[in-house]
């Protein structure tokens, strides 16, 4: 454990500062080349640079390669390859509008390095009740996990700073849980995700200077899913992600099909004083934001903080679950 | 509204813990010995089917819970 402290500190510093220092020039380049999109929830015609996934993947890859220099684990290679593949998939979707099938199918393929490098354990661990060995089901779980986590984070990227702020809370929760379970190596491998999210949050928080885009959101989600599989903390990871899971669940149960967010009606609208309120459209999907707004109009910042509070609550539940892993009935 | 969302989160968490327990109790001791080298594939396949049924039941319960907790809010 002691010998891991130095690599951990170095990789965290690199993860944070690579994103912190490369994002401002990236914003300038994107704006200069007209890679901007309208911020839909602002009164003025605000254009925001996109995609920020480039600096996010740079921070993750550089910090994980440095970490690999200290600890040669196949698990680190699997995370780097899967996350980079997810970034490429997201980047293609940022540049060219792809069909609803594109991301789930290609993200499933992106999960293959985890299987091919043998960076998993087919035991599924549950709190209080112990493990269950399901080799065949587990392979399916790996294939499904990356598209699910990728699209779950992508679907919560609806307001300024929400996806990255949520990722900061969820990824640090996952790292804490891995430390509680004494899986120190994977806990250290997971730390750069939190620091990359934290650095990017500085530019993504309201008012956003840059959006992560699909490339950023899928990078976050794929790395989170890969860590969950490699660290054997799939259940804990799902619990820490529950508010985003609720969002996807509400969305899918109201739309009843896999569909791109840009293809559906916006579930929120702006009031005359530029607060968010739920739309009157009967056919618009039900989402987490729409439920939060059911009590009345709120500012974008208030909705963001409501989501962060939910993320902290589910993070606490995840940490309780990690402690429960050590208890057997 | 917030209390409803927190309640729904807590219900989801409880369902995961209980569902996990059922999965371990049902699937943990499940083995098949009569099919030579293929017994693990067959056992695994049956475990997959049981697990999928449990997941479907989990989603149905969650759907009912959602309608119950958010019955006022879902009347958009």
Record keyword descriptors for this entry.
heterodimer; A: 329 residues; two-stranded antiparallel ribbon; 6 strands; globular; B: mainly alpha; elongated
Q: How much helicity do the residues of chain B have?
A: over 70%
Mean pLDDT score of chain A: 90
Low-confidence stretches of chain B: none
Percent strand of chain A equals 5-15%
Topology of this structure?
The complex is a heterodimer of chains A (329) and B (76).
Chain A: H1 2-32, E1 36-38, E2 47-49, H2 53-70, H3 74-95, H4 102-110, H5 112-116, E3 123-126, E4 130-133, H6 135-155, H7 162-180, H8 184-204, H9 213-230, H10 234-240, H11 242-255, E5 268-270, E6 276-278, H12 288-292, H13 300-325
Chain B: H1 2-27, H2 39-69
Structural account:
The complex is a heterodimer of chains A (329) and B (76). By secondary structure, chain A is mainly alpha-helical. In chain A, the strands form three sheets. Chain A has a two-stranded antiparallel ribbon. Chain A has a two-stranded antiparallel ribbon with strand order 3-4. Chain A starts with a helix and ends with a helix. With 76 residues, chain B is mostly helical. Chain B contains two helices and no strands. In chain B, helix 1 packs antiparallel against helix 2. The radius of gyration of chain B is 18 Å and the shape is elongated. Classes of the chains: A mainly alpha (329), B mainly alpha (76). Chains A and B meet through strand 4, helix 6, helix 10, helix 11 and helix 12 of A and helix 1 and helix 2 of B.
